[in-house]
Specification:
Layout (H helix, E strand, L loop, with lengths): L15 E3 L4 E3 L2 H10 L11 H10 L3 H12 L4 H12 L4 H14 L4 H14 L3 H12 L7 H17 L3 H14 L4 H14 L2 H9 L5 H18 L3 H14 L3 H22 L6
Helix pairs in contact: 1-4, 2-3, 3-4, 4-5, 6-7, 6-8, 7-8, 8-9, 9-10, 13-14
Length: 281
């Protein structure tokens, strides 16, 4: 496990206001935290000579200041500058630092709405589904109605995030909205049909598809995918574990059964906690 170099440098008397985030910081650890948690907000104003002077004189870290000044004079990218700061402080794991740099590279030149979408996508990719849902919902409230491409994309991503927490009804609504905004987005209507297939009794779903013949071919393809998924599951570790549990229950091996179920539930609870872990900003 990587730990930050605690008490690195000194605590500043006068704070530095981080550009874009507009947050005051008094030490290198606070600077690292703000950079990491607000990477999607950062622009090419991330690091300038004012920050270098703050690090040199207020934090008394001349070595780090010197490295940053050299890179600034070479017009170094914001992601490279942030990487130097995080690496120097040993903040987070190497993997986390590289991910943050990648997030900066993706968003630094984008407009604010796109930056926010990139951040929401980042949260989703890392299993922070509750945070991602909040970001997508906030984003939808600020996207102009004429930006149908971005609206469609956000509704689709919101639908996928809802699927991850099994809110299929809201997911289906967002997939359908995404398709209506961009009829060329066939993936959205495929996901919409998948949600309907999972939510509805078989007879009701067949009636629904029959009433919408324009989606008939896609529903046929979807059935093939469901069949393949069921076949894959029948050979998966999860299926085999479930069969073992069923046998233990049938054999009245209560202790083994309940011990295994307890462990499995704890794993599921922890996975759920991780998915809904909301960082207070």
């Amino acid at each position: 496990m990587n730990y930050p170099n605690l008490a690195l440098g000194r605590y500043a008397e006068i704070p530095y206001i981080v550009p874009d985030a507009e947050v005051p910081v008094y030490c290198i650890e606070e600077l690292c935290y703000v950079l990491k948690e607000n990477a999607f907000l950062m622009s090419d104003k991330l690091c300038d000579m004012e920050m270098v002077r703050f690090i040199d004189t207020q934090l008394e870290l001349p070595e780090l200041a010197g490295e940053l000044e050299k890179l600034l004079r070479k017009n170094g990218s914001p992601s490279a500058l942030a990487g130097i700061i995080l690496d120097y402080a040993g903040y987070g794991s190497v993997k986390e630092r590289r991910e943050m740099e990648q997030l900066l590279r993706e968003s630094v030149d984008e407009e604010p709405l796109v930056k926010q979408k990139i951040h929401a996508d980042y949260l989703y990719r890392h299993g922070k589904y509750a945070q991602a849902l909040n970001e997508y919902a906030e984003l939808l409230a600020h996207i102009p109605e004429d930006n149908v491409k971005l609206l469609s994309e956000v509704h689709q991503h919101l639908g996928v995030a809802c699927c991850k927490i099994f809110n299929l009804e809201v997911a289906a609504s967002n997939f359908h909205r995404s398709f209506m905004l961009n009829p060329g987005n066939t993936e959205s209507i495929r996901m919409f049909l998948a949600c309907k297939r999972l939510m509805m009794p078989e007879e009701a779903y067949i009636e629904f598809v029959s009433a919408n013949p324009q989606w008939h071919d896609m529903s046929i393809q979807l059935e093939k995918e469901f069949g393949q998924a069921e076949q894959d599951y029948s050979h998966s570790r999860e299926y085999l574990d479930t069969q073992t549990l069923r046998q233990q229950r049938e054999q009245m091996n209560d202790k083994s059964y309940y011990d295994t179920v307890t462990v499995r539930l704890m794993e599921m609870k922890e996975a759920y906690r991780q998915s809904v872990n909301v960082i207070t900003r």
